[in-house]
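Support request, please re-run this one:
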Amino acid sequence: MTDAAQASWQGSVALVLGSSTGGVGQHIASLARGLLAAGCAVLVCGPVATDEHFGFSAAGAEFAPVEIPANPGPQDSSAIRALRRALSGRDIAVVHAHGLRAAFVAALARPPAPLVVTWHNAVLARGLRGSASALVERIVARSAALTLGASEDLVARAETLGAREARLGAVAAPALGTPKRTRAAVRAEFRLGPEVPLIVSVGRLHPQKRYDVLLEAAARWRDRDPAPVTVIAGSGPSYMLLAQRASELRARVHLLGHRTDVPDLLAGADLAVITSDWEARQLFAQEALHAGVPLISTAVGGLPGLVGDAAVLIPPGDVDALDTAVRDLLADPAMRADYAARGPRQAATWPTEQDTVADVLRAYASVTGVPAGQG
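Re-run finished. Output below.
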């Protein structure tokens, strides 16, 4: 088949996901809309909360509740049975699972249609949990007819574990909303004068995000005049530990909890910071570059390929490097302006939603061998 024929493949697709409140769910919602527009029938299988949060049914997809929790356990057997029921009696051409949890359940459900898996995240756990996760990875890699990785290191990992075929998969950069408040109004929320730098980070409060590094560096910035204020938007299991640590360090940091106004926060920001130990195509990195906010990011996972030369890259876990990068940018308006201009240029090179849909249609055509219009 030609690329054009593959990209116009039509058929019935089951998209499977586990618990999600962020980037994976947004990606699947975008993918479902694009597949429906391309003439495919779309069934989404996942926790009820994901349909409520991302609106799969509202977009026109059929939704079947399959409760796949974030962590493995005895409840997986119920999820496997629920997925089998959801797929039973349907003429599904492709099952496309997103993330290792959903892919593991889908693999054990043994769907009659080819299984495509998109790997969105790396396994960072160690010890017994890490060993169990490695077994899950191996089962998922060997069960999929095709593995798509959100970053090159995920593709390499799948290949190492025995994936039959693995390649990089296009993942669209979500559109950044328009700010609803002015820069001055955003900064007024934190009682900041126009001369006080505002540093913003957004993400789940989880050890992987290494917000402890950001707090340590922020404590050092008290000696600047004026001293920057750092805000972290997000919720998660590390909230109490981070709040306690910020208090101990007397760091000028506000933990904002879950926010839906990231475009506003970026409109008021002078710098954006990512301190994660690993990311693939981190949503906040994309939002910051789209908004033209100078970004400092750890050089991990898929981030260097995502941001190119449009961000200052630092090693993970390095408080000194983060401290130096922030001080250098705050001291040099011309450097900040240069990085602010680089961001939107880099963002323009990322795959669009149309690119992503065309990429998965080619993937579906390759695993089904069905010509266009006969899915």
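The first helix runs from residue 3 to 7. The radius of gyration is 22 Å.
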